[in-house]
Amino acid sequence: MDVAMATAVAVAIAAQLYISPIPEISTIKVLNTYFFANAIVLTSILLSSSKIIPSFARIIILNIIFLLTFITLTLIRRLYFSPLSSFPGPKLAALSNLYKANAYRTGRGAKVLLELHKKYNSDIVRVGPNELSIRNVDAVEKIYKGKYPRGTFYEVGAINGAYNLNTQRNYDIHTPWRRIWERAFVSYEFKDYNPRVEYHVSKFIEVIRKTDGKEVNVEKLLENLVFDIMADLSFAHDAGMQDGKGDNEYMGFTHKYMFAVGVIAALRPLCQLLPLLPEAADVKDFRVRGEVLLANRQKLGTSRKDIFSHLLSPDPISSKILNQKDLNSNANLIVVAGSDTTISTTTQILRILAKEKRVLKKLQDEIDRVVREGKELTVQTTTNSSYLNAVVNEGLRLCNPLPTGVYAGTYPQGVTVAGSFIPGNVQVMVPHLALMTDERYFPKGWEFIPERWTGEWSEGVRERRAFIPFGYGVHSCVGKQLALNEMRLTIAMVVREFDVMLGESYDEERWEAEWKDHAVLQIGKLWVHFVKRR
Ligand code: HEM
């Protein structure tokens, strides 16, 4: 080994020390330094030699030596010398984020986390070089309190060039945005939204009536319903999905977009390079559709009462206003957050009602009582139905649309959770599926027992703080009330008129296989019969 080669090894060791603190330094900085150093070395070799080809060959050899040393040291450090080395978890996960990206690619993200907590019999498992999954209620308040650092996962916001409310990690920007968003969901705004939700849900019931008891994929019908509501309340747009004249491809693009988000978000270096790369066709298709919806909505100004009348108005405290780029990214957020979440949860609840005749019958009895009292089924009259709320809660617990949960970074001083110290700047998440099925907090955690929420079986909820279907803290779901209104009314109106039965095409194995956690849950077709009640 000559002096230059020994220097390449020494530089690799120095570079390793440079990137070793948690969080690892940004990929852009590492690449800039790498290419800059290469340029200097190449120039000095060329200056000292007149032969071009041997000079290039030499620099390639030096690079190979550098990279091999650097990568080997990175793997050794991640495995044995990281502050997270003491946490149990798969070695492959400790070595590379590819482990987690692959879990999202296969759609098994949250299930993988659940299996790891069981396998290692530990509340905390290491799921990435700089990432821990925590299955303990103690973590909820400690991790998500105050303006907690958001996980690096949300750097994926750059996938289409701009951050939205959910991916915005800078609180100087998130806080005024959040105030603007919250104004769209204060209780008095619902007097304008509720009649429109009721209108679309009645159409949904009409569509079901027309199936005349024949087998139907209700997931698609709910997709149409929820999309119509979302388009109407957000963009003043008649999407016409329930009338059979809408853009049937839109949700397909949304799903492809979310698939890309899940995988890329798990690969932080790639996230950081995204703005420099050409936009993927699927992402573009999704983005442009949202921008067209928004452009049409903007022509109506702020007089039309809907969610965008608020997003187009300034924050009253800071007077900040969303610029066009921010509006575009937030428009696309509404499409994802406001549709897939409610579609998958409601579909899964209907599946459970089709399987659990006892629950369906009890729910029908409650809704029948509301009607017998002379009340029409509306958002308002279904708000306080206790068993209905319990069914929805149980659905949100077991069938949560964000089963992996929300990504945070630990505060720089670190945090002690469930008796273990976690260093600062580590990405952590409290996985919704694993937490909300934990027997310590919800006995018979995998069973659908609404009575745990009605007081009839109060031992069924041992730890209310572990129920976080809408997240916790400053980034928790801003559309919660709308989601609950939609789900309650839809379920109430369906069970009032119909019995729900699984169809012949329904296949339990296929259903399980089509359950895909791509950061936001995607589910398969649900074949059912809606049989008119006598
Ligand atoms: C079953 C239905 C729903 C569930 C379970 C749900 C759940 C959640 C969760 C867990 C978060 C936190 C995500 C995070 O911190 O990264 C969230 C955020 C959000 N949700 Fe929902 N959601 C639902 C429906 C809706 C609807 C109908 C809207 C309407 C537009 C909506 C809008 C949002 C927005 C804008 C955020 C981002 C808030 C922020 O980062 O400050 N969600 N939701």
UniProtKB/TrEMBL annotation:
Residues holding heme: C477
Cellular component GO terms, alphabetical: membrane
Taxonomic superkingdom: Eukaryota
Record-linked Gene3D superfamilies: Cytochrome P450
Membrane spanning stretches: 30-47, 59-80
Subcellular location: Membrane
Protein's recorded name: Cytochrome P450
Organism expressing this protein natively: Hyaloscypha hepaticicola
Family indicated by similarity: Belongs to the cytochrome P450 family.
UniProt xrefs under Pfam families: p450 (PF00067)
Stretches of the chain forming a coiled coil according to its record: 353-380
InterPro entries referenced in this protein's UniProt entry, alphabetically: Cyt_P450, Cyt_P450_CS, Cyt_P450_E_grp-I, Cyt_P450_sf, Cytochrome_P450_monoxygenase
Keyword hit for Coiled coil: yes
Gene Ontology molecular function: any one: iron ion binding
Cofactors required: heme
Keywords in alphabetical order: Coiled coil, Heme, Iron, Membrane, Metal-binding, Monooxygenase, Oxidoreductase, Transmembrane, Transmembrane helix
